[in-house]
Design a protein that fits this description.
Pfam families: PTA_PTB (PF01515). This is NADP-dependent malate dehydrogenase. Residues 1-88 form the Phosphate acetyl/butaryl transferase domain. One of its GO terms (molecular function) is acyltransferase activity. The protein has 105 residues and is mostly helical. It has a domain at 1-49. The chain has five helices and two strands. It has helices at 2-11, 23-27, 29-35, 53-66, 93-103; strands at 76-77, 84-85. It has a two-stranded antiparallel ribbon with strand order 1-2. It is globular, with a radius of gyration of 15 Å. The protein starts with a helix and ends with a helix.
Length: 105
């Protein structure tokens, strides 16, 4: 993860990004400010990078069922020539429109 962070910082130095942290600190600014006062982030994280597919799947499912608005977009598999959206059979048709909006960006 540290190597990935350094690569991102080299390629996009203006991007607001921070390194490894617990999920609660990534999503709740007050927790992050308490634990990581030097973090450059403001507000809640809008992208979470996971070290592997298992961690990503666990985190995604936790966020999906606990989201107050019920809107999640992901997972997105990176590292291939273009990003790949992983579509699940249990998703509603409206979810696929959201995927299209992200992939068209």
């Amino acid at each position: 993860m540290r190597e990935t962070l350094e690569r991102v910082r080299e390629r996009a130095p203006d991007l607001m990004i921070d390194g490894e942290m617990h999920g609660d600190a990534a999503l709740v600014e007050s927790i992050r400010n308490d634990r990581m006062p030097d973090s450059p982030l403001k507000g809640a994280a809008n992208i979470l990078v996971m070290p592997n597919m298992e961690a990503a799947r666990i985190s995604y499912n936790l966020l999906r069922v606990s989201s107050s608005e019920g809107v999640t977009v992901g997972p997105v598999l990176m590292g291939v020539s273009k990003p790949v959206h992983v579509l699940n059979a249990d998703r509603l048709c409206t979810s696929y429109r959201e995927y299209g909006g992200v992939s068209g960006s």
